[in-house]
Design a protein that fits this description.
By secondary structure, this protein is mainly alpha-helical. It is built from four helices and two strands, in the order H-H-H-H-E-E. It has one domain: 434 Repressor (Amino-terminal Domain) (Orthogonal Bundle), CATH 1.10.260.40. Strands 1-2 form a two-stranded antiparallel ribbon. A hairpin with a 7-residue loop joins strand 1 and strand 2. The two termini are 21 Å apart.
Length: 76
Amino acid sequence: MTISKEQCRAARGLLGWSQEDLKIAASVSLGTIAEFEKGSRKPYERTLRDLQSAFEEAGIEFIPENGGGVGVRFCK
């Protein structure tokens, strides 16, 4: 599953993370995060995996499309 820009923003919101916090946790550039969340750029798959891994390590679970839509939830 590849995370969406909406899931990225929602996950940051659940954690109370700024884009800067995510930059540090995922070792991804701030510009990449900002452009991804605006929808002006789709990062490489590796970068999306890095973002998702950082969120999962912090307790976020990504919910795939299951008839009710994709989403995120806090698991810890």
